[in-house]
Every structure is written in structure tokens, then in C-alpha cells.
Design brief:
about 25% helix; outer membrane lipoprotein receptor (LolB), chain A; about 30% strand; globular; 18 strands; 6-stranded antiparallel β-sheet; about 400 residues
């Protein structure tokens, strides 16, 4: 039986009232769909093995099902395919680890996880509540693992036999001020509240429907389909396969408005909702491994941060033009247009020619500029150094820059 794709109001099932903290946690799966217009997420392509016959469900009821999910333990294998039209970044991790003047570590997660921004990758994951998670990026003959166990975080690169270690101080701001409490009061506290907020926020900009059923990792799932209703977005649709029994998202697919294969196609190939063994999250550095403590370069990082802050002293942050899926961020050069033009003028001619060759020349009320494109995110750099960026088409980007003048 095909699911009902309408989104009408329903009463919250008895006993679904939850604490605000839990409701906040369950905002994540749906926020991913909304933020996907400007970011790159996880996971990949698994073939559906036949559409299961499931009871009818509305879009609102499916959103409520996600919100009511209490899944905290699972393990499995995922595949992640990301195709922005950029070259593979597999070899970039080592370069990033050593950037900034320090020796760095190939086990530093900030460097290693950039690999997921392009190509196809296999991940093994395990989770046991908020205090224990493990992600392993599997390659042909080696792997990279990131382990969170209590107040410790370990990163291990088997190829280089390097270890990265960090400890949490347990002082994460709990936010007991009045403003924080007010924000907590504004959070939805039941699955129905959550669904109402999502549907209200999407009104006029987004279509949310149930697009049938699927088999993902051997499990029956509903497909929640999110589509922009605004013209000019590079996002065609976001589809989230939701486990019919647990309400857990199993697969995420983002397709571009230009057509072709997905920009991001991510999903479980196998999944088990039982509690992983406690030993899964144990880690001891192997003999002979080079261990880098997160605070070893604290002074160097602090100095670099101070210098960076000085450079941004005149930077007011991005201004958002428009709303919804067609919003564009405007980033001005520190010091204004004159500084931006000067910076551009200081660039070597060869470097400027190289950059110009990567983009398309455009003109408008803003003057002249160059548009740099991927399959999802486009950026316009004008001759005065101002940058406009968003998950919008080139025409929409130029229009936003013109309207800003």
C-alpha cells in the first residue's frame, strides 16, 4: 500500500511527551535536510531490493516518528559517495595535518575526515549513547578510526601508526542563564510539536512529502522527500529513508536541480540496533606509535588564533541575502572595497590568470566578477573582493549581487 503523502495534523500519541533536551537532540535528522543546501553530509548508495508494502503514513506522522525515535545504540557499515565535481581529496589529509607551521598529525580528525568531501568511502560505525561512538574509515589495506569513549577522544591512522589524543574537560557550558532557559522553553517537547514546527518553517519554501517505500540494509523504510519550492536553488531534492520500525534515518540522498547522479548519496549497507560490546570503544596506542596530545601545540595554536583574530578585526561576518533555499551569503573583504581591490591587485598575475581560468566571467550592477561553480555550491567573487556564495544557480547568484547594489 502506497504511503499517503499529505501532511495533515494529527494528535500526539499518548505517552510521547519528552524532555526538552531529548527533543532538541531529535532536531538533527530534519535539520540536515534543511541545511543540506549549503553543506555536505555523510553517506551513500545502496540499491533498493524491492519496495515493501507498508501501512499508509502522512508526512507529518513520519516526521513525528523520527522525533519519537529513541535509538541510541547501533552498529553497522555505511558507504558515502560525494560528487561535487571536485578532484578526490584522499591525498590532502597529510597536507592539512602539517598546515600552519606545525608538524601536525595524520591522525588528527580535522585533517583526516576531509577525505569524505569527495569520492566513495566505506565506514564502520558504532554508537552506545552520547558518551561512546566509533567511526572507522576503511581503505584497502589500512583504516583510520575516531573513537569517543567517555571524556577521551582518540584518532588512529594505521597507515602511519600515528595517534591523536584529546581529553574533554567536562566543563561544557550548560547555559543556566535566563536567555538559555528561554531558548529551551521554545523547543518542541513532543513529536507532534516537532512536526508542527518543521512543517510551519517549510511553508512557502519547501515541499515535504512521503515518496513511497524502500528496502535499506535489509530493513523496511519510508522515504521522506524534501524539495525546494523556490526557483534558483541548486538542490533538486533531499530524500531520507526512515526505518519503519524504529524511526531511525537509514539513508540520505541529495540530488541537484541540474539532474544527473546524486551530489551526496549516503546510507547503511548493514545495521544492527543492539548494544555494541563495550570493548568496541576501548583503545590503547599500539607499540611504537607516535602519540600527539591535543594540547601539545596549544601555545602555537593560541598564537595562530590571535593572529587570525587580528586579521579579522574589521570583518563583520557574512550578511545573508534572501531566505530559504535561495539565500546567499555576502562576505566582504576586511577593510572594505578599497582593501579588497588592493588585495586583488597585489596577487601575482599568473595566480590571477589561473583563478580566472577556473571560473566564468560575469558582469552586472556590482561591476565585474568571476563565478566559481560546483554541482551544489556556487561562489561569485567581484573585482572589489566581495564574495557571494550559496547553493543557488549562477543566474540567481548574479541576481542577488545586483540586488545588493
Amino acid at each position: 500500500m502506497a504511503p499517503n503523502d499529505s501532511a495533515h495534523s494529527t494528535e500526539a500519541p499518548e505517552g510521547l511527551a519528552a524532555g526538552r533536551r531529548k527533543a532538541s537532540r531529535y532536531l538533527v535528522p530534519l535539520v540536515v535536510a534543511g541545511v543540506a543546501a549549503g553543506t555536505i553530509g555523510l553517506v551513500p548508495a545502496l540499491a533498493d531490493s524491492g519496495d515493501p508494502d507498508l501501512p499508509e503514513i502522512t508526512a507529518q506522522e513520519l516526521i513525528e516518528k523520527i522525533a519519537a525515535s529513541d535509538t541510541e545504540q547501533l552498529s553497522g557499515t555505511m558507504k558515502i559517495t560525494t560528487d561535487l565535481g571536485l578532484p578526490a581529496l584522499d591525498g590532502l589529509a597529510g597536507s592539512l595535518a602539517g598546515a600552519g607551521g606545525g608538524e601536525g598529525s595524520s591522525a588528527d580528525p580535522q585533517a583526516r575526515l576531509t577525505e569524505l568531501a569527495s569520492g566513495t568511502h566505506t565506514l564502520r560505525i558504532a554508537a552506545d549513547g552520547p558518551d561512546r561512538q566509533k567511526i572507522s574509515l576503511v581503505r584497502d589495506s589500512d583504516e583510520y578510526s575516531l573513537i569517543h569513549n567517555g571524556d577521551e577522544v582518540w584518532g588512529y591512522d594505521s597507515a602511519s601508526n600515528e595517534v591523536f589524543h584529546a581529553e574533554e574537560d567536562g566543563k561544557g557550558g550548560s547555559g543556566h542563564d535566563g536567555a538559555a532557559e528561554k531558548r529551551a522553553d521554545d523547543l518542541p517537547t513532543t513529536p507532534k510539536d516537532f512536526a508542527d514546527e518543521v512543517l510551519k518553517a517549510s511553508k512557502g519554501t519547501t515541499s515535504i512529502t512521503v515518496g513511497g517505500t524502500a528496502k535499506v540494509a535489509g530493513r523496511d523504510a519510508y522515504k521522506l522527500v524534501v524539495k525546494p519550492e523556490q526557483k534558483g536553488s541548486t538542490v533538486g531534492s533531499v530524500t531520507i529513508a526512515v526505518d519503519a520500525r524504529t524511526g531511525t534515518p537509514l539513508k540520505f540522498t541529495l540530488t541537484p536541480s541540474s539532474g544527473g547522479k546524486a551530489v551526496v548519496d549516503a546510507g547503511f549497507t548493514t545495521v544492527d540496533f543492539s548494544r555494541p560490546a563495550a570493548s568496541t570503544f576501548d583503545f590503547t596506542p599500539p607499540k611504537g606509535a607516535k602519540v600527539t596530545e591535543a594540547d601539545e601545540s596549544a601555545d602555537e595554536q593560541r598564537h595562530a588564533g590571535e593572529e587570525f583574530e587580528k586579521g579579522l578585526a574589521d570583518f563583520a561576518g557574512p550578511q545573508v541575502i534572501g531566505e530559504g533555499w535561495t539565500s546567499v551569503a555576502k562576505i566582504e573583504a576586511p577593510g572594505g572595497a578599497d582593501a579588497g581591490a588592493a588585495q586583488k591587485g597585489d596577487a601575482p598575475a599568473e595566480a590571477q590568470q589561473f583563478l580566472d581560468a577556473l571560473g566564468d566571467k560575469v558582469t552586472g550592477k556590482f561591476g565585474q566578477g568571476t563565478v566559481f561553480s560546483t554541482r551544489l555550491v556556487n561562489a561569485l567573487m567581484t573585482e572589489d573582493g566581495t564574495v557571494y556564495v550559496g547553493a543557488v544557480t549562477k543566474d540567481a547568484l548574479v541576481k542577488a549581487a545586483n540586488e545588493d547594489k
